[in-house]
Structures are given as C-alpha cells and as structure tokens.
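Board notes, transcribed. Complex of a protein with uracil.
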Amino acid sequence: MSDALWNDLETLCRSCRNCPLGKTRTNLVFGTGNRNADLLFVGEAPGQAEDEQGIPFVGAAGKLLDRYLFAVDIPRESVYIANILKCRPPRNRDPLPEEEDACIGYLREQVRLIQPKIIVCLGRISAMRLIRPDYRITREHGQFVRKGGYLMTAVYHPAALLRDGSKKEDMLLDFERIKEQLDLLRAQH
Ligand code: URA
C-alpha cells in the first residue's frame, strides 16, 4: 500500500515541471533512506554530485554528514534524507522562493508518509522554510521546537563546516542532543 504511494509520488516528481529546474537538472534527487525512519534530515537542494547520482548528500558535505551520524551512532541507513528542492539549481545558487513553493508539497507528502519523530533541518535555508522564516541558525541551532505535531531542530549545513571549521564542535554537540532526544522518544513508545 504505502509502496504504491511512494512510487506514485516519485513518478509525479520525475515528471514535475512546476518550475524550470526540472528541465536543467540531470537527475531527480527524490530522497533516500528508511521510509519508516524516526529521524528525517532535510537539506537545501542537490549539488553537483547529488545531481549526477540522483541521491542526496553524497558529495563533500554528505561525507561530513556521514561522519557526524557515525559519531553519535546513528546508521545512515536508519534515517531518511531529503531536500527542500528535488532538482539542482544551476551553479548551486540558493533556491528561489518560487522554486521552494513549487517543490515543498512533495516534501510534505514524504513527511506524511514517513511520520518521523524528529525533523532535522540541515542549514539555514531549510530551517527558514520548515521552522520559521526569520530563523537564525547561528543563534538557534540545536534548539528543539514542536511544530505541526513534529519535534524539529536545525543544525549547521555541513557545507558551512567545510568553510568554517570552528563550527564543528557545536555541530557535534547538536548531534549528541539529537541522539539523546531520539533515545528518549523511543523509550517512551
Ligand atoms: N547540500 C544540500 O543541501 N543537499 C544535498 O543533497 C547536498 C548538498
């Protein structure tokens, strides 16, 4: 049943022309991982490596994300990973508001199907879209909020850590808190 819903959704995304990016991308980057995940990570948009492979977070930023997951003992296969946009913006520019508007419904459907316990926004753009338009990642990263029935938090985008290594300590602390929250929520059920 739910396999059919997933397949329908992916087929819909594959033929989507709600914005021009469907024409310029190489591959759709639909999302990957455990469809029954307790943890959903949402990044911004596919980069070059993701566009080439059709899988989110497989480039340099993705390798760094893998290291944080490993550090707190969360297997990558146990989580689901998606983006606000499913197609790569040219030259990795920030998503345009109208591209986000055109694409966000697909992510909402994925959230409804997965029903994660925690949604983790990877970076400012995702947090501004999913938590609050005026979200300040530097000030608020690692804090948990409840929204729409989901526990949500945001961490720095792994690509930001590649540019500024001083954020790495905070990133590890945030991942440790995510793991703690996850263990707590799992213990309650
Ligand atoms: N950055 C993102 O936000 N998403 C990806 O999938 C890769 C890099």
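The radius of gyration is 16 Å. The domain at 3-188 is CATH 3.40.470.10 (Uracil-DNA Glycosylase, subunit E).
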